[in-house]
Write a structure and sequence with these properties.
15 helices, about 280 residues, about 0% strand, mainly alpha, about 70% helix, Farnesyl Diphosphate Synthase
Length: about 280
């Protein structure tokens, strides 16, 4: 049986996407900084490390195990990503279990709201790919579950840092943004998912309608964020609307090229959102 090496485990976690979970966790923590924090900072730092690597290992490791039949047909996996050999499926799942369990136990010592948010993260992250839920193969539910684990991460960070106020508007805005991110990411996979018989929001709606829905979701996220943060938050949706416009009539080859810039765009926008939160909380 194949051995799961450290370099392979690192590559499975998609390092270029690490900023997503860590960023949403940090954003939740920063949104709570105006409140009196009672949680020890060492606990915040430990969970920051969790959402940097182990959380991504869980998300993408489970995904690679249960998406094998799709991945072997997917041109995006050639060079840009790769396929997880079946001999590594069990070792990966065992490694995910043992790298997650200590943090789940540690979350018990946080507030009840934080613990529930952490459990929600695990439910959405695992249920997205793993049966019996396997939301990935259920159009519309796939985007909801994908968004759910990102938003749950932010909510966890928010309550871990001690905040107790209502966060409904940021949660709704985050769901719109993350659902659009997932749906757009599914567009380059339409052919492979269709061939493998895996229905997704993109195979259900088709390329152009999916991209149009993404554009409206990004606009909706911006409008809701405007109610919470003001006009600057709305302006942050503009680069996404431009990217959706460029993608709408793009060829499959051009679309894949645009998709490769997507993580960079998300990193830049995430940084700007973080700066906006710091500004709103009076840090500068």
């Amino acid at each position: 049986m194949s051995v799961l090496t450290l370099p392979r485990a690192l590559s499975l976690s998609r390092p270029r996407f690490w900023i997503y979970e860590l960023g949403t966790f940090a954003l939740g923590v920063l949104m709570a900084l105006s409140a009196t924090t009672t949680t020890p900072w060492w606990l915040v730092i430990i969970f920051a490390l969790y959402f940097l690597y182990p959380a991504n290992f869980l998300i993408y490791g489970v995904n690679d195990v249960y998406d094998y039949d799709t991945d072997i047909r997917n041109p995006k996996k050639a060079g840009y990503e790769d396929v997880l050999d079946p001999s590594l499926h069990r070792p990966v799942l065992r490694a995910i279990f043992w790298s997650t369990l200590p943090f789940l136990i540690l979350a018990i010592f946080a507030s009840k709201a934080a613990l529930l948010a952490f459990i929600a993260f695990l439910f959405f992250a695992i249920g997205y790919s793993m049966p019996p839920v396997r939301a990935k193969a259920r159009p519309l539910l796939d985007s909801f579950f994908s968004a759910g684990h990102y938003v749950a991460t932010g909510v966890f960070g928010y309550y871990l840092a001690g905040e107790v106020e209502d966060v409904l508007l940021p949660v709704v805005a985050g769901m719109f943004w993350a659902m659009a991110m997932h749906a757009y990411s599914a567009v380059p996979d339409i052919a492979a998912d269709g061939e493998a018989g895996v229905p997704t929001i993109a195979t259900f709606l088709g390329k152009e309608r999916t991209i149009i829905v993404c554009a409206f979701a990004y606009l909706g996220a911006g409008l809701i964020a405007y109610l919470y943060f003001g006009l600057l938050a709305l302006a942050l949706s503009v680069p996404y609307l431009i990217m959706m416009g460029l993608s709408l009539k793009a060829s499959d080859e051009r679309l894949l090229q645009l998709y490769k810039y997507f993580p960079k765009l998300n990193s830049v926008m995430g940084t700007l959102v973080t700066l906006l939160v710091l500004y709103e909380n009076g840090w500068f």
